[in-house]
């Protein structure tokens, strides 16, 4: 009888792991895409300081943290 509550508690762990690992991959890809776009814009405009790379990476980080907090709030 003690084994059933443990199994129920562990049942949701793989689904949560897959959900959050998928979210992490999605957020990393988003950051990489925004940095790449900023890099190509800076390269196209031949800027000496990477303005677009830095600004787009900050925009991506803001969006990542916003999405992460939404998901964490929804699961709490």
Characterization of the model:
With 76 residues, the protein is mainly α. It has helices at 3-11, 13-45, 51-75. α2 (13-45) runs antiparallel to α3. The protein is built from 3 helices and no strands.
Bulk shape: elongated
Q: Provide the residue-averaged pLDDT.
A: 85
SSE order in H/E notation? Answer: HHH
Query: In this structure, how is the largest beta sheet organized?
Result: none
Q: Specify the number of helices.
A: 3
The assigned structural class equals: mainly alpha
Please indicate the percent range of residues in DSSP E strands (runs of 2 or more): under 5%
Could you tell me the radius of gyration in angstroms? Answer: 19 Å
Q: How widely separated are the two ends?
A: 28 Å
Q: Report the strand count.
A: 0
Helix content: over 70%
Low-confidence stretches: none
In short:
The chain is built from three helices and no strands. The protein is mainly alpha-helical and 76 residues long.
Topology overview:
Layout lengths: L2 H9 L1 H33 L5 H25 L1
Helix pairs in contact: 2-3
Quickly list its features.
76 residues; mainly alpha; elongated
